[in-house]
TrEMBL record, chains A, B, C, D:
Pfam family, one: Translin
GO BP term (any one): RNA metabolic process
SUPFAM superfamilies: Translin
Family indicated by similarity: Belongs to the translin family.
Source organism of the structure: Ficus carica (Common fig)
Assigned keywords, A-Z: Cytoplasm, DNA-binding, Nucleus, RNA-binding
Protein name, entry field: Translin
Keyword Cytoplasm: yes
Cellular localisation: Cytoplasm; Nucleus
A GO CC term assigned to this protein in UniProt: cytoplasm
Primary site of residence: cytoplasm
Molecular function (Gene Ontology), one example: sequence-specific DNA binding
Length: 302, 302, 302, 302
């Protein structure tokens, strides 16, 4: 049988190629044997199998199957174990990410208040209360990932969207509080991501900033409505700096690039609001510079 | 002014939150300072920066900017360097992958001959000659990736398609030669991928097998036309075993799953051809051993 | 006025930059003047203006406008002339291409007969009669293009689709007549395109061959229906050679690549038809080789 | 066999058509032979092959294949060489264009400052510094194209988008400096495109102007906010002239036409800003000369 099979498509001449049909299998069995023998110890680590769930050394870490098994089944048995493990890992990641997502939603809900009132520390207290929860969740996510070193980017897609949203909320809150951009390292600190194994991907951080930028035109319009005529100037200054900083980057033609291209519309919209306020000489009720005053005088002529 | 900005949207009360507006920046500047000081050496390694191109520790590896720089610009300057490096890496990967793709095409072109004649060792010589070229190319790819340990899955998408094609060709050649499935470890050996850093992703291997399976119905049809009436039985046996092995796996609802679902149509078509041959009693005019007959008896209830 | 305009956005300080507002215009006017002076002669050539209709030296070839004209209007007047000329050229190309298209349609209509009867020289007489018409039309097209050397690829898109169709018809007719592939040089000869100025683009030729290939499965099915059991073998041999030849090419991921990928389905379909004929031992009424005979004997057992 | 093949689908009668099946090949082989003999020298020139990479004379420039080769393979071998060369050329073009794109981005980044401050010669120094870099890059691009005379429009699509962006930046800078439109010849001079082989396509120039126009409403809004109340009048005058000049052109229904249609929205927006300023009697607090007043009188019927 094996014989017939081995010479699947060759005439007798081919058998000369391969006098002993069993030989070609020998090195293989040996190879696998050796692999399988080391595997149990690796299994104990747990990490190992996951780590290589879908990689080279991968099928090395499956338990030794009965020698009776044909190599094909033996291999697929190994794959089954590894795919199940990586599937299980995905499930656990997914579970944490769902919590991240709902925490981010709660944060956003309370953050939305800033569109109705002048933001005060009190307004930000509730969204800020969620930061601790998120830190805890990312800590759990990092633990899950710790089981498979070097696989960050393999599962990255499973949490990046939620993380971008989180970044946008944190950055908006930080700007409201300090008037400064929340830096990458500061996000990492807030979320406890500042370890080399599990950090905040730069592109996710940048995309998060773009999402935050999308919120600003609406914010400016609403602040002017509630009488803060100086808000447009501040937001414009901030957004202009942010936009200029982004322009330093050589963005490939990808999602980040697309998001960034959208930022200029936010910028334009804020400029328009600032223009409306200036042209009407609506006085900023704070450090109005000489020019503002001059402009107010000019208003006199109208 | 900076002060006014810092308290962008807060009444005085907010200042209490943050008595010394400059303090929150101190630890950051320190952190970056220290980072930036180590960076030149890291730059020299090259690896380091790439490695973290888009990760947490990332912005640590940019050269020290003049202390004058505001943190925002400083950060984006760091990002620029890292994104450019990872972009450059992508370009280099792309260059090698293009060569893999064209080598695979040459291999396929000569492999296609098996659809016109009865495959002999001679027919397989030319496609086999390309294996060495591929091994060399994967070696170069591994070298590029070696510059950024733990980033295999970050760039994986850039070569996986071509690799799946390569696997399908190798697996077909191997089956033609030995009548056995080319195992994952054997592909890795042929392509020199058997190191932990840069191996063959299991899903890519499995998808490659699905592609090979798609070739088999055509092969069977053509072999029968050139008079090998025993080929359908052999292919059917092989494909049945392969299909059964795949069924052991818990496939998530992804590309692999979709490809595998296609395999059953290959199986069905091969069964039909086998049926055509049997129903016409076309006897295998080649080394049909005793067990072929036994097998035919088993097939009796067809 | 000019003065106020010139300093559009500069404070006085800027005027120092540019003490004499008229100076910067001098060299410009001179430049244009000289250009415009040479242009009439060029106009006479006709070619010249077209040739550069939308290119560098372009606006040099417009007739001298009254010196009164401001440079902006002067320039756009030049553009108007050139865009109109290139538009006119496009119209003339379009007119010829429409005739090519309808001639190709006539050719196709009479060529379709080969799907109902066994092709004979008589059947091909009518489509062949159109070749002369096409040659004449391409000659007219070449004349139009001769007016703007080096602009072949600028207007190429206007006729390539129709040309690909023409190639597919000619190639099918040629194969029916000779059993060989119509070569690129042979198409050029038939259509009088063998001059360096206006030739047949290789990609158009190749795409045309792909279109021809799409006709073959239907042809094979119909020929078997009218009793030509040897047709599948011939078509299969031809299509296999053609497909293998295409595989030598490094096709970029473009339209040609897409069309070529489709060819393998034609090949598969023809193989299936050939298989049906063989498995039923339908005797080819021509040089049936020993193998075929053996196969017929085997049929005896059924 | 060849014979049987040649008369693929004809009865004997057809053979009369073509008494000597080998004859039709003779002239071809001769033709190619001669061509192939000259080719090596051409290969050395490099240019030649590229030049005709995908054109009529094309397959003439492949190295002489062994006479054994069948014409079909011989032809495709020629195509392979030519397609590879043209693909290589595309790669080299792409590399330069990527640099053009990133230089244009740097230029734009520094040019954006004019939206925050009153433009001064100092502000324009940085973007102007990039012009030299661009000139150098276009020079390299021209060198690449020089390898295939008469193929400008074949590869044109690979750089036109970036070039349109470059034109829009240069035109904006020029207007800010001189209050005049940057003419086509002036762009060519700045970028060193004033040679007949490699120039600036007029449509690219015009599209670039449309892009510049899109920047002007934003510019006007921002200038008014920084207190330059005379800016709207100047921009309106410029944009009105530009729009009127475009109206002289007979634009086909293409991309340029679409872009131009957008210009009227820029015009409308600038008119609105000018209206806002006038209705509030915001006096231009800068060098408003007598003709400004005259101009205001003219605007009286606004």
């Amino acid at each position: 049988m094996k014989l017939a099979f081995r010479n699947a498509c060759f005439s007798l001449s081919s058998r000369r190629l391969n006098p002993n049909p069993n030989l070609p299998l020998r090195p293989f069995s040996v190879r696998t044997a050796s692999k399988f023998s080391v595997s149990p110890s690796l299994r104990r680590l747990g990490t190992a199998t996951l780590c290589s769930a879908s990689m080279a050394g991968g099928e090395g870490h499956t338990q030794p199957p009965p020698p009776s098994y044909p190599p094909l089944e033996k291999q697929f048995e190994g794959f089954r174990v590894q795919l199940d493990e990586s599937g299980g890992l995905r499930e656990r990641i997914r579970a944490v990410v769902m919590e991240v997502e709902s925490t981010a939603r709660i944060m956003h809900a309370s953050l939305l208040l800033v569109h109705q009132v002048r933001p005060t520390p009190e307004v930000l207290e509730r969204p800020k209360a969620q930061i601790g929860v998120l830190k805890e969740l990312y800590n759990r996510l990092a633990e899950v990932l710790r089981e498979c070193p070097g696989q960050y980017y393999r599962y990255h897609g499973d949490w990046r969207g939620e993380t971008q949203t989180v970044v946008s909320h944190l950055a908006l809150m930080h700007w409201l509080e300090t008037g400064n951009l929340l830096l990458h390292t500061e996000v990492q600190e807030k979320l406890g991501l500042n370890n080399l194994e599990f950090g905040l991907d730069i592109e996710d951080y940048l995309i998060g900033l773009c999402f935050m930028s999308n919120e600003l035109p609406r914010f400016v319009v609403n602040q002017v409505t509630v009488g803060d005529y100086d808000c447009p100037r501040k937001v414009l200054k901030f957004l202009t700096e942010l936009h200029a900083a982004f322009r330093m980057l050589n963005l490939r033609n990808d999602f980040l690039r697309k998001k960034f291209d959208g930022m200029k519309y936010d910028l334009r919209r804020v400029e328009e609001v600032y223009y409306d306020v200036k042209i009407r000489g609506l006085t900023a009720n704070d450090d109005s510079t000489g020019e503002t005053t001059k402009q107010e005088q000019q208003q006199g002529h109208v």
